From TrEMBL:
UniProt gene name: umuD
Top-rank taxon, per record: Bacteria
Enzyme class: transferase
The keyword Cell wall biogenesis/degradation is assigned to this record: no
Source species of the chain: Billgrantia ethanolica
Organism ancestry: Bacteria, Pseudomonadati, Pseudomonadota, Gammaproteobacteria, Oceanospirillales
Name the record gives this protein: Translesion error-prone DNA polymerase V autoproteolytic subunit
Coiled coil regions, renumbered to chain: none
Chain ranges of the Peptidase S24/S26A/S26B/S26C domain: 33-139
């Protein structure tokens, strides 16, 4: 099964700023001591547009359906932030139109040949030789919701 996508929209240059609290505390995924309560009030903020959308005119968002990229951290229901201005290089995760089908795959060179590879061992790499492939953009970020 190929990952299916739904284009949700394009980032806009004039998106309003939405600065949310962003304390200096680092979240450790393990055991640690408790941070100082005073750190919560340092006044730092984070605007997600500023953080994840580097080039608004070249950025669009896609919703993902499918399981072909699960080992690379992309699951069904995730939202992708895709940048069309980045030149694709091996190792990048791409959104591409391959023989008329939109897909999300990692770009790799295998045995000297360019391929699009999934993040699920059930799906074979797609050699790009003799295929019509149009790269729509490079995935810059993945937004994964845990609780809705």
């Amino acid at each position: 099964m190929t990952v299916q996508l739904q284009i949700l929209g394009r980032a806009v240059d004039a998106a309003p700023a939405l600065a949310l609290p962003y304390p200096l505390v680092l979240g450790r995924a393990g055991l640690s001591g408790f941070p100082s309560p005073a750190q919560d009030y340092e006044g730092r903020t984070l605007d997600l547009n500023e953080r994840f959308v580097k080039r608004p005119a070249a950025t669009f968002f896609l919703a993902v359906i499918g399981d072909s990229m699960i080992k690379l951290g992309i699951q069904g229901g995730d939202l992708l932030v895709v940048d069309r201005s980045i030149d694709p290089r091996p190792g990048h995760i791409l959104v591409a139109l391959v023989d008329g089908e939109i897909t999300v795959k990692r770009y790799e060179i295998r045995s000297g040949q360019p391929c699009l590879c999934s993040g699920n061992p059930r799906y074979a790499p797609i050699p790009l030789e003799n295929l019509d492939c149009q790269v729509w953009g490079v995935v810059r970020s993945v937004i994964h919701e845990y609780a809705v």
